Amino acid sequence: MNLTILGCYAATPRTFTNPTSQLLEIKNHLFLIDCGEGTQVQLRKNKIKFSKINHIFISHLHGDHFFGLVGLISTFALLNRTTDLHVYGPKGIKEIITIQLRLSNSWTHYGLFFHELESKESEIIFEDSKVVVRTIPLKHRVYTNGFLFQEKKGARKLNLQAVQNYKIDTCYYQKIKNGGDITLEDGTVIINEKISFDPEPAKSYAFCSDTVYNEGIVPIIANVDVLYHEATFLQSEAALAQKTMHSTAQEAALIALKANAKTLILGHYSTRYENISLFEAEASLLFSNVLLADDGKLFEF
Amino acid sequence: MNLTILGCYAATPRTFTNPTSQLLEIKNHLFLIDCGEGTQVQLRKNKIKFSKINHIFISHLHGDHFFGLVGLISTFALLNRTTDLHVYGPKGIKEIITIQLRLSNSWTHYGLFFHELESKESEIIFEDSKVVVRTIPLKHRVYTNGFLFQEKKGARKLNLQAVQNYKIDTCYYQKIKNGGDITLEDGTVIINEKISFDPEPAKSYAFCSDTVYNEGIVPIIANVDVLYHEATFLQSEAALAQKTMHSTAQEAALIALKANAKTLILGHYSTRYENISLFEAEASLLFSNVLLADDGKLFEF
Question: Where does the chain bind Zn(2+) 2 (chains A, B) (predicted)?
Fold first, then answer.
């Protein structure tokens, strides 16, 4: 599971800082999360294969999280994309994009599917044999969702030596991987644990931005491996965070602690702070494993 | 009259090339012409005072000419702008912007005025005491206008020495600046040319992008000082230019020649060409005063 931060600063794009966008590589999927202005240039700078992005998740309709979407969709068309593209985002996202494609007379030749969200409860919005994606209802000035990406538990791994010792025929291997016990010809039952190993642990990633401090998300993201939580402000600006419905670094750490997350990544810093290491210092007082997002940074888990 | 090229490459924004946007400084106005994705960052990189832009002209509704507009308008709001902003562009531009501001719940606190264009004839769209702006109907795949910016002829300049020699009272100075003759107390008439100088020549700038080769614009831009004309392709790709309704460098030069322009600036290069000096070479065969636009370049006239 790899996470590339394309942009992680709040509000307006600037010369050296980009609005929110990140790319999650999980089980051979390239999931794009949010798409602020300039995201397509950030994808190029980070040498990411555009064409492999088939799913884009938009948290909310503030410009710093979606103004780059229409440009990316248009560029896909100019690059002669043929694969379907799926966009998940708040109700309204379809109208915003289609009106621009219609008026610019540049409808895409590839399939463009919008999955508009309006539920205030967590729901599954994507699922295949390897990954499931759920919404994390957040509290912000407009309707907002975070997203929980969970790998599914894979098949058990064959204990080849044990299987050969018991002289088990290869036609039973899939049954063993699926967790089944085996009955030998003499009637002996070999329990699965003796002939297989546990599968690789399934990993999970939660993206939570933008949001005010909200303990309501803790049960949804409980025990997550990696939590990205917005920290627009430091605790010294707690009143401003409350007023604008953003979080502080301390609040992000408290959520990570209560959710028993393994790792916390901070981002969505207000550009008022010149030194983002202050965010790490503040969050580390409460939570031990804090990382700082920064534009162009790659996290491997 | 200063022209800053913020972006002058066709199609998609890339790591080192930006889509169309330019800033014209004329008679204390800062006019922004087109606004591709990333324009606000280009404005910052070129250290331009955002807040002084009060008029934005959009040629047509292809993404590489307007996808940066909504972001710029939003950033103006975040920067607490209070001055009115006027946007001139094809019918539809208002709907595109307002739907995004409405759905993102971020309506501007400053006055935002849309002047939607749909005429196929040249028309005056802005005028004050010093400048007039007219549309230049272009031919492209969607409804498109170029823009002709013309300084108005200023007042004549007082010939102070002559005025004092004739002992003309200061109360007549404005009349002289306005071109009037003066009758002295003894009845002698002093013709204006004897007591004043010609005003500074009024300058003009024509922006013509995107367009197929179109001689129909020649009468509108006749004798223009500076013509920016798109040259997406070289003549070797003339068929492609015709098909996509763009121009070649040779065609741009032919328009400059027929319009008796003083200077031709080329831009809107396809990113297929690695060396833009080929455009200058081709156009220079027909027209002597060719300049090449490039991102970040400042032209002073």
Answer: 64-65, 210, 268
Which pair of tokens denotes residue A272?
């008022």
| Best mutation target, B67, B97, B272, to test chain A (most A CBs within 10 A) | B67
Helix axes A93-103, A69-78, angle to 10 degrees: 50
Question: Quick one: tokens of B268?
Answer: 């809107």
Reduced to 3 states (helix: H, G, I; strand: E, B; else coil), residue A136 is strand
- Confidence (pLDDT) at A104: 86
A72: closest chain B residue by CA: B12
Residues of A in contact with B103 (CB under 8 A): 61, 90, 92, 95-96
Q: What are the residue numbers of the active site of A?
A: 64
What are the φ and ψ backbone dihedral angles of B106, each rounded to 5 degrees? -135, 55
B38/A13 CB distance under 8 A: yes
User: Which DSSP string do the residues of chain B spell out, in sequence order?
Assistant: -EEEEEE-B-SS--SS---SEEEEEETTEEEEE---TTHHHHHHHTT--GGGEEEEE---SSHHHHTTHHHHHHHHHHTT--S-EEEEEETTHHHHHHHHHHHTT---SS-EEEEEE--SS--EEEE-SSEEEEEEEE-SSS-EEEEEEEEPP-PPEE-HHHHHHTT--GGGHHHHHTT--EE-TTS-EE-HHHHEEPPPPPPEEEEE-S----GGGHHHHTT-SEEEEE--B-GGGHHHHHHHT--BHHHHHHHHHHTT-SEEEEE-B-TT-S-THHHHHHHHTT-S-EEE--TT-EEE-
Separation in Å, CA of A52 to nearest CA in chain B: 18
ipTM: 0.91
> Nearest CA to CA, how far is B53 from chain A (Å)?
17
CB neighbour list of residue A58: distance below 8 Å, 6 or more residues apart: A34, A35, A65, A66, A69, A87, A88, A89, A90, A93
| Structural domains of chain A, with CATH | 2-154+200-293 (3.60.15.10), 157-197 (no CATH)
What is the predicted pLDDT for the residue at A170?
93
Residues in A lying within 8 Å of B, measured between beta carbons = 11-15, 37-38, 40-41, 44-45, 61-63, 67-68, 70-71, 74-75, 78-79, 90, 92, 95-96, 99-100, 103-106, 141-142
Contact call for A74 and B12, based on CB within 8 A: yes
Binding site members of B? 60, 62, 64-65, 140, 210, 268
Contacts of B96 in chain A (CB under 8 A): 99-100, 103
| A169 among annotated binding-site residues | no
Q: Could you read off the pLDDT of B178-208 as tens digits, one per residue? A: 999 999 999 999 999 999 999 988 999 999 9
What is the pLDDT, as a whole number, of residue A200?
A: 87
Report chain B's C-alpha Rg in angstroms.
Answer: 22
Please indicate whether, in this complex, the C-beta atoms of A44 and B71 are within 8 angstroms of each other.
Answer: no
pLDDT in tens, B237-270: 999 999 999 999 999 999 999 999 999 999 999 9
Pairs across A and B, CB distance < 8 A: 97
Contact check, Cβ <8 Å, A63/B12: no
